[in-house]
Model the fold of this input.
Amino acid sequence: MPRESLIGRMYRKVFGYLASRFPPTPWSDLTRRTVETVQRQVPRSHAEKYELKTIWYWYPLYCLGGISFVAFITLTITGILLGFYYIPDGTIEYTFNQEVTSRAYQSMQFIMNDIPFGFMIRGMHHWGAHIMIAAVFLHMMRVYFTGAYKKPRELNWLLGAVLMIITLLFGYSGYVLPANDLSRAAATIGINMTKAAPGPAWLGQFATMLLFGEPDPTGFYIIRMYWLHVFVLPLVGILLMIAHMALVWIQGVAEPH
Amino acid sequence: MQIEAVREGVFEGKPGFPIQYGPERTDHQPGIPFWPHEVYRDLVIVFILVAIIFFMSALWTPIVGPSANPAVQPFSVPDWYLLFSWGLLKIADLFPEGRIPDGLGGTINVDAAFWGDVLSLIPILPMFLIPFIDRGRETRPAKAPIRSAAGMYMIAFVFFASVYATNDRIIATWSFVHDDMLKWFFIVPPILVGIASYVGIRRLGFRDMYWWLVVSVGAAFTLVTTVAIQVFLLGPWGADGIDPVTRLGHLFGNASGQPLFWFVLIVIVYTGILFFATALLRERKAKGIVMIASLATFFLVAGLVKFFADTNPTGNLLALRVLAYHGNWFVALPLFALITFYVGTRTPYSTYEYLLNECYQCGKCHTVCPVTKVEDDALGGLNLVYNTFKKQHDGVPLWTCLACDACSAVCPLDIKYSDYILEERSKAMAPKTAADRGRHAG
Amino acid sequence: MIPLDPEYGPARTIPHPVMFRVLDAEADDVAVPAELPVARGAEWAYYPGCIDYYDQEMQFSHLNYGDTDHGIIFDSSIKLLRAVGIEPVILDRSFMKCCGHDQLWQGKVDVFQRMRDYNTKIIKMLGVKNLVTSCAEGYRTFKLDYKLDGVNVVHITQTLYERGLRLPPPKDGRTIRVTYQDPCRSCRQMPVDPIYEEPRELIKRVENAELVELKTFRADAQCCGVAQMMYCNDKTKGLTASRMQEAKELDVDYLLTACPKCLTHFGCLHHENRWKPEEERYRYRVVDITHFLAERLEGETVGKPPSVIPREADPRLKGQKAVE
Done:
């Protein structure tokens, strides 16, 4: 009888350790089901199924949802790294040369200039954001043009539309953070437009205070935008993304036909 | 001859014969395993994407720029994805302002920001409502021209709204561009894009669109002529008190009016050629004439601009300003007519595989094909259409088909399978017959 | 795609190689004659097609115990056209070529194109206004695959129906049961002007004929099993056999068709079946519809007398058990 391999023995040891502490009965079935789900077969596309020699040029457009997700993962990782150094304080300060600055702006300078490869991380975050927004938009266009929002996928389309809005908000809150010229201009416009939201006057005021923290742009808005960008939107966004992708997993991809 | 022997040869219904359609189908074609095939495929794409992001951030590192300064009025534009909202905000100047009471005792301040908010909903609301508006079953974009054209319209609308957001920079760069023309960008180009898309997609989807084409190009021609007449009769920027005949004389007799006259004439003539070619000539001839006319017009206009810039600079500038002011009509409409003509007369996909691709494997052809009732092969059953798609026929279904068109008669998509057979057979026989001039060896 | 049999397609028995060599060889000679031996003006022209060749094939390549007569279609068509007041120019095979239908469907497109160009030139040269064919495949080919602008291509049944063919009352009062095979080429495959009703109307004008329909008819009609003369083995004969079995089950006296190809294949099976008298089960006549109508036109039979003997009267089967 051949001796059990090293890996086999290690696996048994580890599994034995866990199994004696967490009775496997409730969750072994779960393991099996997870393995089965992971081992599920990805259905063949039309061209693969019928071994057609035609190359349909629109097939890469079906990767766009995945590209958005990969870009989002990149953004999360680079965002975590940036978050170690970014200071969300937009209060206007002055350097000893009487130049305008703020702690947020200074932390940006620090990331770009002093941290090793900080500029790369920031650059990847910046370009990843543009790529994600472009991919989300193109993905939406692809789904629209191929009519993949029709029954039974209406709910998924609504989830996707909400995710599109969330992505735009991500982008917006993101470029308000560095406390530069563009951020201030964007914050000004954002505050004005939110104050003028259609509906009763108090609604606009309430929304402005909620999202920006102040009725006029002085710099306090940065902390609110930061919290939105770093916690609220990621939480909501990740949950909705999981739901969106789970629906695609369950319902299958609408094939171009 | 024994009928019983023939009856025994029929395989349908026998055990072991694979059931290819319906809930009891027995020949499920397996997919691709998630691990490791799909994981590897996806990892490649992930790596490529991350590499692209990495490369971009190395090559085009974003700068931080000057700090936010409350003392300085910032002159910057939002990032590209929110430009459309800013453009709509700017156009909100046109809308009436005031205060209206809300139902709860307060007032709503209707100003530019308010209208900007409301207008920004124009691209966003339909986005949510689409699955409930469009309840048809057709998914292929080429077969759903209205949906596709509406989508192109919205994309163009968002694009031109974004363009308008940069109007100050445009006017700073090109001084002869007038803001009024840019304001029309919200209306005219998206509609033109929508119509051109509609015509092109109808053509692509093998639907007749001759009348759509003629009417679109005819309308473009009519509008161009109308605006030209308006320009000449009323003056470039509106009535200025001079009667039309004198004005025309002025314009033509006056040195500074001549370039304008020539340019507008060229535009009218070109659009007219497009219209008459579309309406009267056969396709091939029309395409030739349009190509020659387009090239000639382009070079003529470029040459004239250069010529007048040298000999008559004031007239040239006036002409360019008028043309730019009415750019939506004098430039966009002829371009639209040309594009619509082109997409409306393109050769659609002609290979039969494109048409066969409409098949959604309902199986009715298989049911009625007389050959499947009597023929067997290694697959356990001859299913002409299905085997054709799977390329598993190694020629047998191709030559076994009786071309009786029983399949085409029942096909819900009206696919003419006998046409496909004809094409494939001629392709198979072609080298031999060309070489031996119709005779056969032996 | 691997053609296993390079000549006509893979793995099919080719039953009529001689005929096709002859027809294809005709395509090589494309010189259009300067003068054509036609007797009169060409408002109406009749194109008989290759029916003589089918007769030759049937009689020499198969031991033909039967009476399938293709040439009679020609005589009958002329008689019928005269009966409705048309004196057609006969587009004789001495100066016309085969219409090219089989060559086209066998994939020999350039052979077809040469034949087509030649035939089109002749038709234009004669100034033909109406081209009448008695062959469904010719009808489809001239209408769809040739570009004959200004020429009205019709099947003979259409002409007879439109010109109001009237048949005299029959000499004997016995009712005959008649069924009709819709040819694929002139019915299902025609996007314009399919010929479903005209033959049926003409049959109805025969007073003692009772028209019964086969199991599938009109657009659902099952093919007779022909495939461009290219596909002929036990399996396609099975199709032909099942069709003829349907006719037998209806207990018909005549199986009519409007296509000489259908006639060929029903006739071929009919004859094979009669080699062994105890197996002969299709005791009805298979004739072309023109032959049938011409027989009724003057109350006399045209051509050979019928040789279908009812089982009870068959002398060859004295005392033998019937095989069903």
